[in-house]
Amino acid sequence: MSKVVVAVDCMGGDHGPEVTVPSALAAVDADSDLSIVLVGLSDAVSGALKAAGRKESERLRVLHAPEVVTMDEAPAGALRNKKKSSMRVAINLVKSGEAHACISAGNTGALMATSRFVLKTLSGIERPAIGGVLPTMKGRTYMLDLGANVDCTPMQLLQFGIMGASLAGALDHIDSPSVGLLNIGVEDIKGNDTVKQAAELLRASGLNFYGNVEGDDIYKGTVDVIVCDGFVGNVALKTSEGLAQMLGGMLRREVERTWLTRLSCLSALPVMKSFKRSVDHRRYNGASLLGLHGVVVKSHGSADSFAFGFALRRAVEEVRSGLSARIGERVNELQRGAA
Amino acid sequence: MSKVVVAVDCMGGDHGPEVTVPSALAAVDADSDLSIVLVGLSDAVSGALKAAGRKESERLRVLHAPEVVTMDEAPAGALRNKKKSSMRVAINLVKSGEAHACISAGNTGALMATSRFVLKTLSGIERPAIGGVLPTMKGRTYMLDLGANVDCTPMQLLQFGIMGASLAGALDHIDSPSVGLLNIGVEDIKGNDTVKQAAELLRASGLNFYGNVEGDDIYKGTVDVIVCDGFVGNVALKTSEGLAQMLGGMLRREVERTWLTRLSCLSALPVMKSFKRSVDHRRYNGASLLGLHGVVVKSHGSADSFAFGFALRRAVEEVRSGLSARIGERVNELQRGAA
Q1: Would you say B9 and B93 are in contact if contact means Cβ atoms under 8 Å apart?
Q2: Is CATH 3.40.50.880 correct for B127-285?
Q3: Label partner for B277 (CA 20 to 30 A): which of A289, A319, A328, B259?
Q4: Are B143 and B300 in contact (CB under 8 A)?
């Protein structure tokens, strides 16, 4: 496999090096063509390396960055005042070509603002978007935007469709991924003006446009890619997180209600565990910042090292599949078509 | 308890009289102060009555309506061309004062358009909204709008807050229900301009405004009432339906995978059933059309008679709690406050 270098912002997320470093170690061990640059406060990063009984090597370099972007910092402030942050230094490595991709579990707004400023947006893309992957009854589906853009024009929604189709094509090797537009009904007359115009653009785009889909189609797996503005996408994602947590909590409560209920569920434990594994959201960790010159992946802030590893592997896959170039080509094709 | 008359659109929904009539029978049997007018094609309605071994009585009247609004009919078409539909006739009974409330499992758009045309919107309310109730980790929460209004002004979102607070106050007897504004972050700077301005209006309104909430707060039960535009609300609701279905399906699949997994889960069946009951969405069936002169409740189209009964009881509760008047008063208070 092709050699890939990933810059890891070790300081980001709720847990920092404690999670990011062990996860990076597991990743280099599992993939002999992967090198990682661990970016962060060198004491903290080296400490985490030492705690794991490891040291720097050719494929595992530590790069000191003296500042840290906090989770609640305003994106513009982080961009202006934290030029030596682990996040910024990691993104700089992608810009300079020393790394192919960057991953961070840090402040999403700051990561997007900094990536956009440093790496620049691909020609033909007005606004980068955040694309995630969700489990469905049939497999998995890609959804964007998940929160980078609260107001979107029809043209931007079309561009999300292009980026989403490129993402599904690259990661799931689908030739012509089906693209659905998230709406409140399947009929053409449904939705607001923006969505109606976006449907027309998508229909004329040459993408494999399925038409409107509704919220329940996300988990039905009706399409490979779901396009929506970042407000709606973010609400849908977080609503799902909340519902899954509530259902999990209620199931646990029922099981643990009395010694009798506990006992009666003992023999069912393997089935429950298998169910839990099959819906484990950690396997879907990692959102892609799409539409940039370079691969940037955002891990959930609360990710543990198992979850962070999935996001890290996502970054590697995106590099190996040439995702950024694929998006650039698709945009160009469309622009030539429209000209 | 006070006497209540409910007009039931027997023809609406996926199942029609087969579901609506038995459900109405159970409701009158359980509440001696409730009378029901069964509106629909008299043959079909009388047939369903007969099948249940019952006949008309003082508290159970059949009213013939020769037309039926179909589920996929355009609201404007239904309003113009189906003046003798069961839906329209049922709403007319509320207008004339012969019924206190109307319930239908039929076409949502047609129900809203017809209710608005016949009953008129309360003074001070620009647009009626659809309010639903959802289970949470702490109890339940009311959410609106769930799909009537795809684009909303800040003022309309404020009015949704007033209506939602009235609904929670009326049904759950909460003195000053907390109201949250659905957004993509809790900080004031998050969201689009509409949401930011709505937050300012809500903060100055005298309502118990909690501030911004995120998608996962819906099921955490962070607030009593969640306000959002109908596009976002509809997507959040349907996404939840889809996720719950997927998780239920996956759990079933794990249990039924082999004879061994089935066997190992046998003793856990009571716990699983208890869990299923505690998350049974049928208990939350019934969305309220709010902001009208009169009570109108929409049942899910696919509701069975158990679910339809919950929506029917909701209508009765709304009448007994004087919901429409409560909303009117709150709007007036606010207008006086602003003047």
Answers
A1: no
A2: no
A3: B259
A4: no
Distance from CA of B79 to the nearest CA of A (A): 17
How is residue A159 written in tokens?
């561009």
Architecture of the domain delimited by A1-125+291-322 = 3-Layer(aba) Sandwich (3.40)
Residue of chain A whose alpha carbon sits nearest to that of B188: A74
Separation of CA B206 from chain center = 26
Contact criterion met (CB < 8 Å) for A219 and B235? no
- For B240-318, strand residue ranges (E) read 287-290, 295-298
**Residue B41 tokens, joined:** 């094609």
Q: Residue A298: in which H helix or E strand, if any? A: strand A295-298
> How far is the C-alpha of B214 from the C-alpha of A139, rounded, in Å?
27
- Residues A299, A286 contacting (CB under 8 angstroms): yes
Using DSSP's 3-state secondary structure scheme, residue A151 falls into coil
* ipTM for the complex shown: 0.91
Report the distance separating Cα B316 and Cα B170, nearest Å. Answer: 12
In whole angstroms, give the CA distance from residue A8 to residue B222.
Answer: 35
Domain B127-285 in the same topology as domain B1-125+291-321: yes
Q: Find all residues with CB under 8 Å of B195, minimum gap 6, and list them.
A: B154, B157, B181, B183, B212
Answer for the pair B107, B82: CB distance below 8 angstroms, yes or no. no
- The beta strands (E) that lie in chain B are given as 4-9, 34-40, 60-64, 101-104, 129-135, 140-144, 178-182, 208-213, 225-227, 287-290, 295-298
Q: Tell the residue number behind the tokens 């118990």, with chain if given.
A: B208
Closest to A279 in 3D by CA, of B279, B251, B280, B215: B251
Q: State the smallest CA–CA distance between residue A264 and chain B in angstroms.
A: 5
Burial class of B174 by CB neighbour count within 10 A (0 to 12, 13 to 18, 19+): middle
- Please answer yes or no on whether B184 and A230 come within 8 Å at the CB atom: yes
Chain A residues touching residue B189 (CB < 8 angstroms): 74
Task: Answer whether B220 sits within 8 Å of A246, measured CB to CB.
Answer: yes
Nearest to B218 by CA among A287, A86, A237, A121: A237
Quote the tokens at residue A300.
């959930």
- For chain A, the domains span 1-125+291-322
CA distance, residue B31 to nearest chain A CA (Å): 32
β-bridge mates for residue A135, sequence order: A140
pTM of the prediction?
0.93
Q: What is the pLDDT along chain A (339 residues), one digit of tens a residue?
A: 789 999 999 999 999 999 999 999 999 999 999 999 999 999 999 999 999 999 999 999 999 999 999 988 999 999 999 999 999 999 999 999 999 999 999 999 999 999 999 999 998 899 999 999 999 999 999 999 999 999 999 999 999 999 999 999 999 989 899 999 999 988 887 888 999 999 999 999 989 999 999 999 999 999 999 999 999 999 999 999 999 999 888 888 888 888 888 888 888 888 888 888 877 888 899 999 999 999 999 999 999 999 999 999 999 999 999 998 889 888 888 777 665
Residues A10, A16: contact at Cβ < 8 Å? yes
A108-119 helix and A86-96 helix, angle to the nearest 10 degrees = 30
Say whether A228 and B216 touch across the interface (CB within 8 A): no
Between chain A and chain B, how many beta carbons pairs sit less than 8 Å apart? 177
* Closest approach of B23 to chain A, Cα-based (Å): 27
Nearest residue in chain A measured CA to CA from B274: A254
Whether residue B150 and residue A191 make contact (CB cut-off 8 A), yes or no, is yes
Nearest CB among A235, A254, A278 relative to B275 is that of A254
Q: What is the CATH T-level fold of the domain B1-125+291-321, as seen in this structure?
A: Isopropylmalate Dehydrogenase (3.40.718)
